[in-house]
Design goal:
Order of helices and strands: EEEEEEEEEEEEEEEEE
Helix content: under 10%
Shape: globular
Strand content: 35-45%
Number of domains: 2
Oligomer: single chain
Structural class: mainly beta
């Protein structure tokens, strides 16, 4: 890794692998170690900052215990700087058989309407596409073709939210949820939902606007979906 490809790594690191032998895609969270990276060979689910979706490859270097297929594990992350325009990147780390890793820049941000300096973390869907935020928009990156799609750009004035500082999460229907640090009805930040209307067109709905400091405001983290509701 060098400064010409990326700099100032931000957010979480996620992992993508696809089980192709039986045609089943899986998404499992794994607990990372101290630097946020954990082995895709682990098959013990836990809550953490990695998402895996295992790819069968008989020539790969890691095998999942009890599964009987060989796995490759590509890690994805984002940087706030570096890349071809020095405005941040989405990068991929691929494992080598000798224990080292090779970095590939999946996408370099160009600024302007396409956004710059992503810093909120990434979310992975079952197709292997990546979702995240920059200071003024929500994006999707398709690693297979190194392409960015801008899903939603927050409007001037901030009534629909302003300045997302965290990533987004996906629900089972493919809707995206996130927070903005500022904006909303009262200027104290918001929680929003994005819904795909057709093709690459998405619509935003403000779920909640924080009202004042006494009730909390200026959210700088994302939302989560609980595995079960508290009693």
């Amino acid at each position: 890794m060098n400064s010409s490809s990326r700099a100032s790594s931000e957010g979480n690191i996620i992992s993508h692998n696809n089980t192709s032998k039986n045609g089943v895609g899986i998404q499992v969270g794994y607990l990372g170690d101290g630097d946020g990276l954990s082995s895709c060979a682990s098959q013990t689910p836990s809550i953490g900052n990695m998402i895996t979706d295992n790819t069968a490859n008989e020539n790969a270097a890691m095998q999942a215990p009890g599964v009987g297929i060989w796995l490759t594990c590509n890690l994805y992350g984002e940087t706030a700087g570096g890349g071809s325009s020095d405005l941040g990147t989405i990068f991929k780390l691929s494992p080598n058989s000798n224990g080292t890793w090779t970095e590939t820049v999946v996408y370099s941000f160009t600024g302007g309407a396409q956004g710059a300096s992503p810093a909120g973390g990434l979310t992975l869907d079952k197709a292997g596409n990546l979702y995240g935020t920059t200071a003024g928009l929500v994006f999707e990156v398709i690693p297979s073709v190194s392409k960015e799609l801008v899903l939603y750009t927050f409007k001037k004035g901030g009534k629909d939210g302003s300045w997302p500082r965290a990533g987004v999460v996906l629900d089972a229907k493919g809707n995206l949820y996130g927070t903005t640090y500022q904006g909303g009805a009262y200027g104290w930040g918001s929680v929003f939902q994005l819904t795909r209307e057709s093709g690459t067109r998405w619509s935003e709905r403000l779920i909640y606007s924080f009202t004042d400091r006494n009730l909390g405001g200026l959210p700088n983290g994302s939302v989560i979906f609980p595995t079960s509701e508290p009693k």
